Amino acid sequence: MERTAVPRRLGRLRWSAAEVLDRRAESATAVSFTLDVSDWPGHEAGSHLDLRLTAEDGYSTQRSYSIASAPNGSLVDLTVQRVEDGEVSSYLVDEVRPGDLVEVRGPVGGWFVWRPEQREPVLLVAGGSGLVPLMSMIRARSAADSRAPFRLVYSLRTPADELFGTELRGPPPGVDVWRVFTRSAPTPTRRPAGRLTPEHLVAHGWPVDFEPTVYVCGPTAFTETAGAYLVGLGHPPERIRTERFG
Question: What is the reported pLDDT for 174?
Fold first, then answer.
């Protein structure tokens, strides 16, 4: 997921070389990469990094991307979705191959993270590629053998846009997944396409008195709308953590 770069704690971070070890198609417009960063200090589930590309003529550009993987030594997974007219995302999705080198800086972020010591129920609300940092949380839960109950409400346009489809069709015990298709729903289906509503969050989220921690990630409009729905349903604002991109 490409994010708007926000400099936080970057004065203490340095750029490091990262080798692309693997690339995997997630959809027609999204690719996952595994990077090997030799001096990677480790990350928490939900954090992100900055990625920099430099051309032979010296031109350089950078973007911020959420990390998709659980902490795993020097290995870091990114999932990049091509953005219309996106200079960096188009290059990464169309051109980058195993063996290529990029530069990364991070990790960044300490608020929008899930930690294995958390025991309370967790509600994840994803809009499109906002699923990426939430997938890191799901994977970190499995890696830590946590029993914290997770529920994911995933809003996406069509079945063809789904990320991590195979993994989410067989989620680990204790992780419930519900999809909301906004443009075109699978056929046959009893659930017509439509936008996320408060009713979806009631039916497939956690009751307020369970005191879940809620993570919402997606485009700005989606994140603001979902956050307002959750507050309207009675979830305390201090238990709702949001991350937006655009």
Answer: 95
Contact in structure between 206 and 212 (CB atoms under 8 Å)? yes
- Any idea how long the chain is? 246
Q: Are both 91 and 126 inside the same structural domain?
A: no
Q: Domain of 43?
A: 2-108
Q: 186 and 138, same structural domain?
A: yes
Read off the pLDDT of each residue in 141-145 and give the average, rounded to a whole number. Answer: 97
- The verdict on 209 and 147 lying in the same domain is yes
User: Is 116 within a domain?
Assistant: no
**Shared-domain flag, residues 235 and 142:** yes
Mean of all residue pLDDT scores within the chain: 93
Query: What's the chain's Rg over C-alpha atoms?
Result: 18
What is the helix (H) or strand (E) element at residue 168, kind and residue range? helix 165-169
Task: Kindly compute the dihedral angle of the four CA atoms of residues 230, 235, 239, 240, in this order, to the nearest 10 degrees.
Answer: 0
State pLDDT tens for residues 40-76.
999 999 999 999 999 889 899 999 999 999 999 999 9
* The predicted structure's pLDDT at residue 7: 39
Instruction: State how far the Cα of 183 lies from the Cα of 194, in Å rounded to an integer.
Output: 7
